[in-house]
Design goal:
Strand order of the largest sheet: 4-14-15-16-17
Number of helices: 14
Structural class: alpha/beta
Oligomer: single chain
Helix content: 25-40%
Largest sheet: 5 strands, antiparallel
Shape: globular
Radius of gyration: 21 Å
Strand content: 15-25%
Length: 466
Amino acid sequence: MASEEAAGQLFAADALLPTGWARNVLLQWDPSGRFTHIEEGAAPPAGVLAAPGPLLPGMPNLHSHAFQRAFAGLTEYRARSQDSFWSWRDLMYRFAAHIAPESLEAIATWLYVEMLETGYTSVCEFHYLHHDPSGQPYADDAELAHALLRAARAAGIGLTLLPVLYQTSGFGGQAPRSAQARFIRSTDNMLSLLERLVPTTQAQGAVLGLAPHSLRAVPPDSLREAVAGITALNPQAPIHIHIAEQTQEVQDCIAWSGQRPVQWLLDHVPVDARWCLVHATHMKPFEYAAAARTGAVAGLCPSTEANLGDGLFDMQQWLAHAGAWGVGSDSHACVNAAEELMLLEYGQRLALRQRNVLASSAHTQVATATTLQAVAGGAQAAGRRIAGLAVGQQADMLALDAQHVALAGLDAERMLAAHVFASQRSSALHSLWVGGRPRVVAGRHDLHDKAAHAFVAARQATIAAD
């Protein structure tokens, strides 16, 4: 890449600010990579780099299981008379059993390069692969967490690391399955891990949070103790949880507790704006209203939810209660920020048999409205100052290629619409910066070839071991 010096400035003829589109915008940031000055209606200063097209805020990816990128595309065959999330999970467990630390680092490095090349500038890593294949801790109990930290540092992507607490195989404290041995930690052990990771994450500028895997995987007492523990460590630490993803999960939760998953969580745990409710696909109207009131973010992963047959989140219900939301690539069947926005809108269209469902009163263009909302919600879920092109926020941004055939000759807002709905999406992205540092230039990351080669080798080694 070009210079690693973060302090700098950029001129954009068009930029998408948190309030909407602005013309002739001068952006300046300090050596820490935070915006210090954003001026609309500015004259282009001599010698200052000009963006090659409309400038957009970087998109946070609020949900990732990095190792699953090497598994994407390998389950698209019928293994049972009727496949489901649960049959997919069995295949995923088989694959996860053979991931080595060096393989995880190679897979994650390539994934993070892909994310940067397709518009994500940060990622929330929901990390539950903790131990060796037999379930024994590595000599360094944080070995696999460190592999993810190294991968993020090498690629230059912002990171929120969310070690996952996983203890049981089902509601009511069912014993974990042998295939889950790599995931299991006691609550005390998890809190010790978090304490050990604080210096490393702080040194890298990463945020450390906690991810109770799900209500079926974390008993009530452990959930309360873990939330209290991470809160004592850092009262602002983000907390993410899988919830209400599958109808069977909802039914099992009702059988166990008499309540639906989101209903139970809100009644028994102090959910607030630090929380990200990942998927939350199957809720009743009263749950949408109650969950939105907490200030929690809905973590939506349209490509994975479609791939796994989860169902559709009711965005109209959520938005009616002013709920915050963001997008993630989860299992990485798709790694593209714009494509997640497209799939989110298309899912709502299919459910409602309407068009332009996610346009807002403030922004009639769907691409503009969803980009701004997903950036704001994703930043909240990440627990990082990455909420767009604004003073005090990190200088995470990307520029579209105004000369791309799908965009050329259009005004800026229509260029974004074409990027989301009418291009190959990644092909129209020209440049990307994280904390003011250029990470993608002319559509390519400088680690692209090296990281791709290492990824292919890691995937082949993992498949061969099965």
